[in-house]
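Handout, tutorial session.
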Amino acid sequence: MSEKLIQFKVPEEIKDKLDKMFNSDGTTTPQGFRILAFQLAKMNQSPFAYYFENYSEKVNNRIKQELRDDELKELGILPDDAEEYNSDEEIRKAFKKHFGE
């Protein structure tokens, strides 16, 4: 069977977390992703196509675009419009505003 290489970049802190997680399972990050790729291919379905507890619809184009936009904001390509909170009090007020307690 011929093989093809898959490469992608992630922020250093994400890579460090993945290394720690996969290491606790006795494997490396590349080995973990290889196993994951084989399992996904065997299932023949994207994990994003399933219904999630909090959603009543499959991942559609709108949600895909929101995920892409979030990633571009995280990378600094799009401006980040997330609210920032500079104190515990601001966080408590925002929580109360959005969740009612």
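The second record follows below. Compare its token runs with those of the first.
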Amino acid sequence: MADRTGADTGGDTGRDPDVLTTAELAAKLGLSAQTVRRMAHAGQIPALKTGKDFRYSWEAVREVLRQPHHQPGTADDPATEPSKGAGYRAQRRARTGATTDD
């Protein structure tokens, strides 16, 4: 079935469900699309540049965000609380498996 934009909203779209657009990934992580793009540009999350935007593997992003966050120039002390900068909420959600869509 097609929605009002003509996009197929049901059945097999021929698209890998693991591959997400910036907007889709932002919604899953509870972040803005701008924050997701900044994280991709900074190399904080794996992304494939497609024209002017990116595509993301949900599993690859979750795996990266599950890793401990270490600030450059700080000791790798596990007792130290990581900085709560951009991506902190996404990392926390990925570690706990929480999403806004599921």
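Points raised in discussion: Strands lie at 19-21, 48-50, 53-57.
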